Amino acid sequence: MRRYRFGRIAAFVAAVYVAAVVVSGVLALTTGDPALLREIVTGGWDPDFMPYTWWVELLMVAGGILQGWAYWQVLRGRPAGAAAVNDRPVRLLRVALYLSVACTLLYRLPIPYEWWLGLPGDLLDFAVVWLFFVVLAGALPRWLRVLGLVVGLVDAAMGTAATVVYGLGLWSAAPYVSPYQLGNVVYLLWLVPVLAGQARDARWSRGTVRIGMASAVLSLLSSGGHSIVSFGGWGVDYDLVIMMVLGILGVFGTVWLARSAHDLGGPPPVPSPPPPSRVAPARPWPLAAVAVALPLIPAAVNLAGGMPVWTGPRGWVDDLFHGYVGYPATVLWVVVDVLVGVGAPAVLILVAVVRRTQRLLRVTMSALIVAAAAGVVSATTTEREADWQLIPDMAEQRLALYPGGVFDLNDNGEVLFGLSPSWYSAALAASALVLLLLYGAPPAARLRHHVLVTALAASVALCFLPAADQSRGPVTTARDCSPPEPWETNGEPVAPEPLTGPRAFICAVRQRQTLAFAATTPDQVLLDHGRRLCGAYTRNDPRELARLRDTEGLSVDHLSGVLAGICPAANAKITAEAAARQRESEEFVAEERRKCDATPRHHPLIRPAKAIRLKEPEWPEVGLGLYDEPSAEGKSTSVGPVNVAPGQVTVGTHPDFHVCVTLETYTRRPPVETKGWDHVVEVGFTNRSGEMTFTDSLSGTELPDLSLNGRKGHYRIRVHRAWFPWKGDEYGTQRLLIMAYPGPGDKAVVHRKPAKNR
Questions:
Q1: Which of 106, 155, 231, 383 has the greatest CB tally within 10 Å of its CB?
Q2: Is the separation of the CB atoms in 551 and 543 below 8 Å?
Q3: Pick from 230, 265, 300: which residue ends a domain?
Q4: Does residue 640 sit in the same domain as residue 618?
Q5: Looking at the domain assignment, is residue 223 inside a domain?
Q6: E strands within 476-614?
Q7: From CA 533, how far away is CA 541, in angstroms rounded?
Q8: From CA 72, how far away is CA 9, in angstroms rounded?
Q9: Does pLDDT of 472 surpass 60?
Q10: CATH code, domain with 746
Q11: Is 70 in the same domain as 91?
């Protein structure tokens, strides 16, 4: 085992830290309070902002263990033994790297953070960039070193400016010093040449270079200058979880800095001859051609339909790159999406087949399996109508990076895609399996777990085809069955499409969720099942109906309304029931008309300006109200069935019975009549609009205008109400006579009231 200068101390510190993380994790999982765990691992994240969630806390424990490993890597120092004799630039680079690590660890100390504490680290970046330029003189071409120097200094300047701008609160200048579109691209343009130089320089180990590569990938995925907006406190916010995880994984950058310094301090490794490049034996070309041609099949089908992309903006993988990572990574994902969509993996497979080196073959097979897995995830997590499709600005932003005119919209405004990504997954996984069978390493050189994982992943991907590709027709959703909302038609009313035939059945199933089918089940499957139920409904065999009730939990004899669109027997029953209800309703209305016709007609004692006896009985639900703009504030007064307030007069009626209404308008005060009435009440009302109409908004009742030829001003309203018995007192109806005439006074006068209110 290799020993290090401070290995024991580093191991002790790392072990104590990991133990603290594990103990706090156990406490978090048992008590539901993750405050201590998050304080140790992330230095914050208030549980009120990100509520306790068991799997998030497990992620925190795993992140804490990773940080313990990072502490050991940072603190262990150079390898034990004689120190290397380095030139002055190398010694200065080691010092600058260690100081950069110290500035990074400064944030973990329990001290108040001030924005200017970040300036020393930013200024050190200038020194690190320059010293790497000098130290890598023999490992990289001069032009590449100069390029790295320029972009490195630019990145350091941008970082320093961003620290000052954000520290001083100059938010308007932030987009100029830390553009969202750039992300960490400038930093990567410096880091990648440095890693290439380290890989060529024997002073750095391959482990250091690999950790640097991991740090580069995380920098690409990082949001950079992109701000993720979240309010927290409403369950698991995946934006915040991504930020927490990326923050924890940021230790790879610190470990790379520390190991780069450690490697320069130890004795240079003994150079060893590079391992021979193993080339797989050639195989018959038709079999290799199959591996090359497979990814071209779904690409050709998609291109024939005018769709040059692989997944498009759908599924969790695309959501990850469009909502949780930096803009450059999003652009790279769209490029990969288009390349896979047009069959570019075939080129990679062709190169691997021609070269046949074991490393290239392994990389190719791994890339194919990863792409196949991404396609499966995208296919299985695709939503029929994602949230971003509902907001035009978000939809425009989501589709902006794709070639114009690629994605069309259907009648419902939904984006139309090409083949399901699972067909690509099947083709890519099959190509990987063919490559494994043709060019797999011989048993002596093959690691068993590599073979097992590759074969298992390929087999799973081949068997994973989504239900969307097995559909035999369109899928009508419950929302498709409803009329469009006003905001979807610019406020213009749209008459709903009548539901008849198969569409009526499908919409009944979707909206009522009568049958136990998923919302994505094709319409044809529902129709086939519905016709089978129709057969059982028509036969009406008690044993068959009982069997369906026991096996599927369906009472088929109660599904008449659902099956009516496709089942003549059910439709006949529904039609007969509707006709019976219609006859009953017509008989009920005719009976109410007969009641009103039988009520005594009112004979005015003086000639009214107009008199209206309504032919049809009214059926208000909450009484009748007369409303106008009030002249002033005042109190509400109730007298018998009448309630009067400034700007309104309401007449109470019984909601279970119809009302036979007569309206009369006079030019002068009519004589008071109380004979035959239970209530006679007179109140005042100011008419400002020129119209006086009693209405009931719930039932839609609206009586004719009571005003005197549109005259404005003050009126007196006299309300007469009585009960009219019919075939027994409980089957009677209500009589209502309302008089109006111009006159002063707001006093409520009761001319008659019953000894006992009905």
A1: 155
A2: no
A3: 265
A4: yes
A5: yes
A6: 610-613
A7: 12
A8: 9
A9: no
A10: 2.60.34.30
A11: no
Both 242 and 309 in one domain: the answer is: no
Let me know: does 462 contact 430? Beta carbons within 8 Å.
yes
* DSSP annotation of 295: T
Q: What angle do CA 167, 169, 172 make, to 5 degrees?
A: 125
Cα 267 to Cα 2, 92, 135, 223, 378, distances in angstroms: 13, 17, 16, 39, 49
Q: Do the strands 642-645 and 679-687 form a parallel or antiparallel pair, or are they unpaired?
A: unpaired
Query: How is residue 124 written in tokens?
Result: 């050190």
Residues of the domain holding 687: 599-752
**The residue type at 69:** W
Query: Which residues face 738 on adjacent strands?
Result: 663, 719
Indicate the pLDDT class of residue 368, thresholds 50, 70 and 90: very high
- Report yes or no: 106 and 168 within 8 Å, Cβ to Cβ: no
Is 494 inside a domain boundary?
no
Instruction: Measure Cα distances from 725 to 119, 720, 735, 752 in Å.
Output: 94, 16, 10, 20
Q: How many CB atoms lie within 10 A of CB 730?
A: 8
DSSP category for residue 400:
T
pLDDT digits (tens, 9 = 90+) for 641-676: 999 998 899 999 998 899 999 999 999 999 999 999
Q: What is the pLDDT of residues 473-524, one digit of tens each?
A: 577 777 778 777 666 666 666 666 677 788 888 888 888 877 777 777 777 7
Q: What is the pLDDT of residues 582-591, one digit of tens each?
A: 999 899 889 8
Tokens standing for residue 79: 């390898």
Nearest to 736 by CA among 751, 724, 752, 725: 724
Q: How many domains does the chain divide into?
A: 4
Distance CA 718, CA 99 (A): 95
What is the rounded distance in angstroms from the CA atom of residue 690 to the CA atom of residue 670?
A: 21
With H, G, I as helix, E, B as strand and everything else as coil, classify residue 738. Answer: strand
N-terminal to C-terminal alpha carbon distance within the chain: 101
CB atoms within 10 A of CB 303: 15
- Measured torsion, CA atoms of residues 27, 30, 34, 37, in degrees rounded to the nearest 10: 30
3-state SS class at 542: helix
* One domain for residues 295 and 244: no
Which pair of structure tokens corresponds to residue 741? 């005439």
Contacts of 523 (CB under 8 A, 6+ apart): 473, 474, 475, 476, 502, 506
Six-digit token string for 47: 């549980």
CA distance 187 to 328: 12
Centroid of chain to Cα 353: 42
User: 489 in a domain, yes or no?
Assistant: no
Give residue 231's pLDDT: 36
Residue 381 lies in a domain: yes
The pLDDT tens digits for 149-168 are 999 899 888 888 888 887 88
The rounded radius of gyration (Å) of the Cα atoms in the chain is 41
Domain boundary pick from 77, 98, 113: 77
Closest CA to 723 of 692, 678, 757: 678
Closest CA to 480 of 504, 507, 499: 507
From the CB of residue 294, how many other CB atoms can be counted at a distance below 10 Å?
Answer: 24
The vertex-492 CA angle with 489 and 494, nearest 5°, equals 80
**DSSP collapsed to 3 states, 678-733:** CEEEEEEEEECCCCCCEEECCCCEECCCCCCCCCCEEEEEEEEEEEECCCCHHHCE
Same domain? For 147 and 290 the reply is no
99 shares a domain with 72? no
Distance CA(343)–CA(355), nearest Å, equals 20
Backbone region of residue 441 per phi and psi (left: phi > 0; alpha: psi in -120 to 50; beta: other values): beta
Output 344 or 730, whichever has higher pLDDT: 344
AA identity, residue 138 = G
Distance CA 192, CA 204 (A): 15
Strand partners, 415: 409
Same domain for 304 and 164, yes or no, is no
Amino acid letter for position 237:
D
Q: Transcribe 607-638 into DSSP letters.
A: --SEEEE-SSPB--SS-EEEE---SS----EE
